[in-house]
Automatic annotation (TrEMBL):
Bilayer-crossing regions: 60-77, 83-105, 117-141, 153-175, 311-333
Protein name: Membrane progestin receptor gamma
UniProt similarity note: Belongs to the ADIPOR family.
Residues binding Zn(2+), per UniProt: H103, H269, H273
Taxonomic superkingdom: Eukaryota
Amino acid sequence: MFSLIKLPRVFTINQVPKVFHEDGIVSGYRHPHSSATDCILSLFQLTNETLNIWTHFLPTWYFLWKTGTVVLMLIAWQDFFTWPLVIFLLSCCIYPLASSCAHTFSSMSERARHICFFFDYGALSFYSLGSAISYSAYVFPDEWVNSLFHQCYVPMAVLNTVVCTGLACYSRLGLPFLQYNHDIVNRLPVSPKLSKYLRVVAFAYPYLFDNIPLFYRVFLCVGEGCADNDTNILHCKHITLAFLTGFLFATHLPERLAPGSFDYIGHSHQLFHVCGILGTHFQMKAIEQDMMTRRPWLLQNSIPITFSNSVGAGLLCVVVNLTIILLFSLPLLSAPVFKERKHYSGLKKVSAKSCPCC
Ligand SMILES: [Zn+2]
């Protein structure tokens, strides 16, 4: 059947605009003005994005299945104690789904690429809030439960999502209307290095903040009141994988050592996706186990789980983050389409001549 479908051609780094370039990736680029159909077809064709898409698309279904199971088996709508877990699980479904969509459709145009990744950043931000809501409910060490830090923890995590999404979106093009408008072709107001640095900070900061109670519980706390139990092993597995995920994202290893050797299989972004998902899996197991084993003690001693510190905080985060994404996307959405089309119209002809092999 696939022999009847003509798969789109792929390009080398010199044939696509700078905004599509990835460090250490030399070939396997899709056309920078692909149609939506070409983007979907590229799922079944080996390009440098194919495994980026599948490594997040398949886990989305795993987390959806897990969410469905929890909601149905624990009758979550009746049991307010499970609400934070459900919010966390929803965030675990949304971030890989947004990421796989972003990687699928990011080659439709330069503007589409920016907007796709704005959504990707918003979803990651929501995942960090999902983690914070569930940590506040189930993971805080006994001796920090009900402390001032515990009471401020979820509101601060909501605020952090604004910083995280805002900074990550800013890292692509700067401030909307002030530093960029619809005329973004050949313009990169933020240098690629600074852009990468800002993005690392944007995601490392909320992760580190969210994990303060967990780091204290696992690495620093001694004696009673540490909630020192079997779950700590699962938490440690999650922390190790999270640091490996951050390391891969920041260093671009292994492709930086051998540019062109990992274009299709084995480059850092694929490994980053896989480690991130494995980390999320262990994090989910740990949160679930803490929720089950600590339930009686937490119900008696911890801050009560309410609509505002669980579902309400999640909804607020979604509304605020969508507003930020809309603000950053507006100048791009108002662009006259023909301008970009014209810019790339010659690429197919030129590429066909210069790269008969692809
Ligand atoms: Zn990705």
